[in-house]
Design a protein that fits this description.
single chain; 303 residues; alpha/beta; cell membrane; Surf1/Shy1; transmembrane helix; transmembrane; Surf1/Surf4
Amino acid sequence: MSANNQSSKPWWRQVLTPGWVIAALLIGVFSYYAFTFLAPWQLGKNEALVERNEHISAAFEHDPEPLSSRVDDDGSLGADAEWSRVVATGRYTGDDVLLRLRPVDGTPAFQVLTPFALNDGRVIVVHRGWVKAENSTQVPAVEPAPSGEVTITGLLRADEGEHPNPPMHEQGYDMVYSISPTQVGSLTGTDVVSPYLQLLGGEAGVLDPIPLPQLETGNHLSYGLQWILFGLAAPAGLIYFLYSDSRERRRFEAEQEQLLLDDSPAGSPDPTAPAAPAAPTRQRYGSSRANPWAKAYDKEEER
């Protein structure tokens, strides 16, 4: 195919090669994944942490509320009620259930969950805190919850849902892998409400209280923005390289056309025309470097 025919092809036909097509498909998949999953994933985590921090801060800005005002009549957690600081009156009932395989501040621990019967007849699971595991796996002696009626204050927490691993009975305790009040209720034979109550320090029945989370959001916002930037930069880079490749192809074709014109018969010299005088060539050492003995040699030859 001649250079003229090649240059007449549109630029998009010139770059429509398997390599560019595969690159465009891969970049398209990456950008779609960045916009629809990676960026929303990080931005969603940032939004959830911001909301959690606001609720925790608000919980300590006023007096605790009655638990009944934050738990609906059907036992579900009220809207925006998680991390609310509430007060409840009743008595501990039932056996302790241990949450396993969840360290606290890097320390192997068992977290203690105990049903608490409220004065209004409902039952809520109370997270009494944690105890340090002995030899990383053994359950230590767990201080029992006080008997009799007590008033406790804690933070309302949402049901984590049941873990895929079923509960187990070991070392004299029922053990679970997640904090699911429904699962704890089935193990203790009680009908419990959906949320659970995480005790604060100094309350009746508390062990070592679970520390509150740090009120920070981490780098999730910047990570989300970075994924958006990557999703935009990838196709922009592809367009730039496509343009550069097309420009290089056009430059190469123009050079080929010029070479064809230079080699055509119309551009060949006339053999009958006198030859053009040769351009003076520069002396190797320049005119100022003439041989000083040249004249002497010439005179010697004349003799």
